[in-house]
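Case study.
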Amino acid sequence: DAKTTQPPSMDCAEGRAANLPCNHSTISGNEYVYWYRQIHSQGPQYIIHGLKNNETNEMASLIITEDRKSSTLILPHATLRDTAVYYCIVIEAGSWGKFQFGAGTQVVVTP
Amino acid sequence: NAGVMQNPRHLVRRRGQEARLRCSPMKGHSHVYWYRQLPEEGLKFMVYLQKENIIDESGMPKERFSAEFPKEGPSILRIQQVVRGDSAAYFCASSPLYNSYEQYFGPGTRLTVT
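After joint prediction, the assembly is written out as follows.
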């Protein structure tokens, strides 16, 4: 699986958009980009995933660059409950869904 | 619809004892994954099971660890002769479909080996 690089931490003001970057410069054509988050002491929670096109759901938006070497997760209106570690994972189709979680980005939403 | 259930939530074992961790997937899900999270680290994949089958155990330590998902009942992760290095949070996830990457995680079992 391709490696991902994320900043270790970032702060965001409540009510503002949080933009979380992820670099995956060695991604190959059949690899998806997945985002999960882990609120302290809980199990990870699925957020969104994509292959080539931008995606949006009720939680977030995922913007993937045209060359697919990086992506951005957007939380449109951050709340205090969005404080968590956010993981960007690149996973190959057919790899049984065995995610390898890296260090992620610790996001702290402040009032 | 209940989520993924794991029990116990906290487990304390002395070195050399056995630890049994249980995972009940979401209703209708027949695929189970186990992950381990060591202190201050990310989750690491251990094993992927379907009912009565181990599909991928490439992340399982070669000794002392085993997993099963019987036709009836929860999935079990068993650790024999625990050592202090086994202290970690163990998470189970389930999915409804073959090769579905949208996994639903349980709250985890925190194992402490004294």
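Observations recorded in class. The beta strands of chain A are 9-13, 18-23, 31-38, 45-50, 55-56, 61-64, 70-75, 84-92, 105-110. The CA atoms of residues 62 and 73 of chain A lie 5 Å apart. We will return to this complex in the next lecture.
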